[in-house]
């Protein structure tokens, strides 16, 4: 599996704050009886549930599981349709903004992922169009590929329009998707065009949350 990724929003820097530690005095140590009780409890717990990877007396902290990567969408990914008809989906958010576009090649399909910041899931309107034209102005957009797939994320309304200063192009890698071009945010709709090699082929669309993503898989018959 090969990944091609272009990050569309530059991340801002973050300052790190270091806190010093001071040692306590002997009279601040816990009483001997409390230490003995805690040790006995820990020993009993470790005996009941031994850990082959943790040494005796070592405390463990449970970390929240990270969200599944896009290639493990599981049941969220529908089956590929047999047609190339337009597909639409409803949004449950009005505060998402585009952070990046990624393209990756998988077994049997190419995946385009629109990463959004904010809460909720984007809606979508995805369909083949005669040509790539910029929203509002209608200006033609250069795009490689024999067919043009227009990917629109619906109800994406950021508070700061400057967040849409993006790199315009994501290149494919000899799969079904030749090139992906970010167009613009227009009336709450984030538009991206994908140039598909060898004409229109079936595609599937679904959304994932935490973080919010719009996923478009384009069938690759050559795999």
TrEMBL record:
Swiss-Prot/TrEMBL keywords: Signal
Keyword Signal: yes
Occurrences of domain AMIN-like (ranges): 97-219
Location of the region described as Disordered in the Swiss-Prot/TrEMBL record: 20-95
InterPro entries, alphabetized: AMIN-like (IPR056303)
Keyword DNA repair: no
UniProt protein name: AMIN-like domain-containing protein
Organism this protein belongs to: Litorihabitans aurantiacus
């Amino acid at each position: 599996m090969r990944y091609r990724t272009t990050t569309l929003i530059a991340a801002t820097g973050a300052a790190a704050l270091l806190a010093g530690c001071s040692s306590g005095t002997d009279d601040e140590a816990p009483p001997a009886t409390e230490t003995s009780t805690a040790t006995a409890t820990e020993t009993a717990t470790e005996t009941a549930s031994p850990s082959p990877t943790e040494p005796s007396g070592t405390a463990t902290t449970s970390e929240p599981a990270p969200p599944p990567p896009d290639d493990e969408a599981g049941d969220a990914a529908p089956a590929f349709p047999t047609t190339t008809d337009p597909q639409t989906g409803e949004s449950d958010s009005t505060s998402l903004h585009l952070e990046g576009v990624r393209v990756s090649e998988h077994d049997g399909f190419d995946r385009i992922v629109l990463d959004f910041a904010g809460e909720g899931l984007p809606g979508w309107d995805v369909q083949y169009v005669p040509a790539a034209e910029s929203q509002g102005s209608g200006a033609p957009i250069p795009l490689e590929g024999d067919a043009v797939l227009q990917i629109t994320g619906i109800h994406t309304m950021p508070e700061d329009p400057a967040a849409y200063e993006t790199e315009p192009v994501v290149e494919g890698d000899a799969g079904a998707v030749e090139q992906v071009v970010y167009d613009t945010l227009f009336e709450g709709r984030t538009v991206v065009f994908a140039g598909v090699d060898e004409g229109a082929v079936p595609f599937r669309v679904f959304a994932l949350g935490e973080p919010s993503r719009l996923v478009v898989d384009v069938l690759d018959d050559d795999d």
